[in-house]
Amino acid sequence: MKRGMLLVAATATVAVAGAGLCACSKAGPAPSTTTATVAEPLATSVQAGGTAWATVPMGDLGQTLNTFWQLFERPSGSDTWSDQVEATAVATNGGIVLAPSPTDALVAAVRPSNLLTFSPLVSTADAGRSWSNGVLGTGLLDLPGALAARSATQVLALAGSPRDPRLFESTGGLDTWRAVTDERRLAATSSGRNCGIDALGAVAYLGAAPVVGAACDRAGVVGILVETGTGWQLRGPALPAALAGGRAQVLGLWSEPAGMAALVVVAEGGRMDLLAAFTADAVHWKLSPPTTLAQGSTIASVGPAGGSGLFVLSRNASRRENLESVSGPGAGWSTMPPPPPRTSTVVLDDPARPQALAVTSTVLTVWGLGAGGWSVVQRLTVPIQFGSSS
């Protein structure tokens, strides 16, 4: 099997065979798949099995068909990133979604694009030394939180059309799935009505229970719904009094060995505040103090930081990056020195060596943060076949 998970476009065919996986495409723009208030790019980093993983777009980011997604890994104890991931090659412009599990497995899924209408998946339970593959017959949504893993074989996925998002769960492997629910059914429940579900945005496991995060039309309600023995229950945290008049959107959910973490944005009157929330049982929550996004800022990347923390990379109206993180339950937000221009995501698995991954065409530049600020640690050129999508 060829090493490398370089995401380049190929011919207008689609095939899944043996231990190999090919997700090929033809010209045509990928549809938008979210109506959420705050848009979230797929670029992110996660940690699983002691290995850091990151997915970023490369190539000509101004052209959909010349933007190619890449999966990078940095093994435990190493300072060097590699694109030589020992998994089957795939071809897509649609993006990659990553899901680490509390058991240190990693699941990666390819989004549909062009003629590709389903989502191929690969998973590893041993930090990338061996891989399994599968397929979700319906395309994954264009959200970094659309995938969640309890193990290498038990996975939740938000998929389907943007007008009819559906929740699926794998049953015994990554090629057999059951339909759990969909946005319309969730919205019709008493919990869904109390939220006024506007859009589904993220999934996670809390123990064995599936969890869905949503954007709510109802002011002051955080749309975190947990599947229980009596149906779906609204279990989001109560907002601080100062934010109770705003509308909340769940940007991300992350399963953790001790429970679950959530990232929530609350919008009111043109102001957006971010909250990190942590729970062991979806009844008792610990919230961070809010941090306010600068006017005109956009979210560039969100993800886990260290054992139980979260990070938010944003970009203001002047294209200047801003990086904030929270270390875990009960902690406040820390603002780090602004990462270098063109940073796609950051890696905060080790507080002693934060890294920023910046992309310029086919070159990935890894920056490390030290006492003197950000400095170049590594440059990696990825061979990209421009024009191969047509």
Write out the CATH superfamily name: YVTN repeat-like/Quinoprotein amine dehydrogenase
For the biggest sheet, the summary is: 5 strands, antiparallel
Report the principal-axis shape: globular
Highest-level CATH class: Mainly Beta
The computed structural class is: mainly beta
* Unreliably modeled segments: 1-36
Q: How many structural domains?
A: 1
Average pLDDT value?
88
Annotation field: number of helices:
2
CATH topology description? Methylamine Dehydrogenase, Chain H
Report how far the terminal alpha carbons are from each other.
26 Å
Residue fraction in strands: over 45%
Reported CATH architecture: 7 Propeller
Total E-strand runs: 30
Rg, nearest Å: 19 Å
| Amount of helix | under 10%
Task: Write up this protein.
By secondary structure, the chain is mostly beta strands. It has a single domain (14-381), classed as YVTN repeat-like/Quinoprotein amine dehydrogenase (Methylamine Dehydrogenase, Chain H), CATH 2.130.10. The chain has helices at 183-188, 190-195; strands at residues 14-17, 20-23, 44-48, 51-59, 67-74, 96-100, 106-110, 119-124, 132-136, 147-149, 155-161, 164-170, 177-182, 197-206, 209-216, 223-228, 231-234, 247-256, 259-268, 271-279, 285-287, 291-292, 298-305, 309-315, 321-326, 333-336, 343-347, 355-360, 363-370, 373-381. Strands 18, 19, 20, 21 and 22 form a five-stranded antiparallel β-sheet that branches. A four-stranded antiparallel β-sheet has the order 6-7-8-9, with no helix packed on it. A four-stranded antiparallel β-sheet has the order 10-11-12-13. The longest helix has 6 residues, at 183-188. It is globular, with a radius of gyration of 19 Å. Mean pLDDT is 88; it is low at 1-36.
